[in-house]
Write a structure and sequence with these properties.
The complex is a heterodimer of chains A (179) and B (211). Chain A is mostly helical. Chain A has helices at 2-16, 20-39, 45-61, 72-97, 102-105, 124-128, 132-143, 148-155, 159-178. In chain B, helix 6 crosses helix 7 (155-177). Classes of the chains: A mainly alpha (179), B mainly alpha (211).
Chain lengths: 179, 211
């Protein structure tokens, strides 16, 4: 591990001297250790790829701020975190812009949800076709009777994330059932 | 994955020899030297306060000036560290301005306590804030111009500390130029605005230091 870390510093020093081969290896290795870091935090592999490209560009742009005399990885991770935060900020801002207020749609909702013939059991087949995480959340909330907060505690997610996932699941189910 | 390979290849082709950035302390010294030259030149033009020698016999005034110089040095070092994505792995330096500011508050408190009976308030008021602001424009422009050449990942904080650097230059110059003994006036129209502009720097940094 120490040897590999040393290699990063040496590779960067060579890169700053204009060594193309060293720079290629450094960027490839950087992409390799940053990919799992991003994959843990983002949903789709397309997003991971896009952001990874952006991070590599940023590393290229900021390479003069690294002198080769301190560990390379904290420097690279600092740039990666910065770009990730930027990406997530834009992502959530975009989602908030397109979010619909509940008050705007309440008139379009069915008059009485309690009188509906639809039960969890009657649509459980459709629920199982949803992504695993959404299906599990719906099952816990509507079959086992957990609240969003309890589901969050059980799954280790944030309560808001559980609500968002449930909301998406309802939306997907409604589309399917309306067909 | 293919895209990444292509990008790596393209970036590698662009890998010309690059001069690494100077160490943050060298960078900080450069900014401090610039600030010193600017203050000295300005004082040569505008003149020192006539009672400066006598004031240097007052311990709280001396402590105030020393601490103000400390804030200038600490903010210069803090800003220099903050231009590096990883803070040059010297995270503690970033907290130095906050420590100095806390010390400054204590010194000003004792200075105000020692100002008994209180020195009369001068005729002017907000004009001091305007003078400090105008005087600080040049150092602020210079430090932001320098910082933009690097890659800060803490744009808000970097902007705040950069403006604190610039406005501490202005506050220091005015304290050495203006004959004024009222601690209350100095707090109200010199130092609170100085810290206030530092807070505005949080937003300025976000705008100017984005890369």
């Amino acid at each position: 591990m120490a040897e590999k870390t040393e290699n990063f510093e040496t590779l960067m020093k060579l890169s700053l001297d204009g060594d193309t081969r060293a720079y290629t290896i450094l960027l490839q290795e950087t992409a390799r250790f940053l990919r799992p870091f991003l994959a843990k935090r983002l949903n789709s592999s397309v997003e991971v790829d896009d952001l990874l490209q952006e991070i590599l560009l940023s590393i290229h742009k900021a390479r003069h701020t690294y002198d080769g005399n301190r560990p390379y990885k904290p420097w690279a991770y600092a740039i990666a975190k910065f770009r990730l935060q930027d990406h997530l900020r834009v992502y959530y801002a975009d989602h908030l812009r397109h979010a619909v207020e509940l008050s705007e749609v309440e008139n379009d909702l069915q008059e009485s949800v309690t009188k509906t013939d639809i039960t969890y059991e009657s649509i459980s087949g459709e629920v199982q076709k949803l992504p695993a995480k959404q299906a599990a959340i719906l099952q816990m909330m509507h079959q086992e009777g957990y609240t969003a907060k309890e589901v969050a505690e059980k799954t280790g997610m944030k309560e808001s994330a559980v609500k968002v996932a449930a909301h998406r699941a309802y939306k997907a189910l409604r589309k399917k059932l309306e067909r | 994955m293919g895209n990444i390979e292509e990008l790596v290849e393209a970036l590698a082709q662009d890998a010309t020899k690059v001069q690494p950035a100077p160490h943050p302390f060298r960078l900080s010294l450069r900014w401090l030297a610039g600030a010193t030259a600017y203050i000295v030149l300005s004082l040569v033009i505008s003149g020192l306060r006539p009672d400066l020698m006598a004031k240097f016999h007052e311990p709280w005034f001396v402590a105030e000036i020393i601490c103000l110089v400390g804030i200038l040095a600490a903010s210069s070092s803090g800003a220099a560290v903050l231009v590096f994505p990883d803070l040059h792995q010297m995270r503690r330096v970033v907290f130095a301005p906050a420590v100095l500011l806390a010390l400054f508050v204590v010194i000003i408190f004792f200075s105000w306590h020692a100002d008994s009976p209180p020195a009369p308030l001068p005729q002017h008021s907000y004009q001091c804030t305007i003078s400090i602001a105008l005087f600080s424009i040049l150092p602020a422009a210079w430090i932001f111009y320098s910082m933009r050449k690097f890659a800060s990942t803490h744009c808000h904080l970097a902007g705040s500390i950069a403006l604190l650097y610039a406005f501490s230059i202005g506050a220091l110059w005015l304290r050495l130029h203006e004959q004024n003994d009222s601690v209350m006036h100095v707090i109200q129209w010199h130092y609170i605005p100085m810290v206030g502009f530092g807070i505005i720097g949080l937003w300025v940094g976000k705008v100017l230091l984005k890369w």
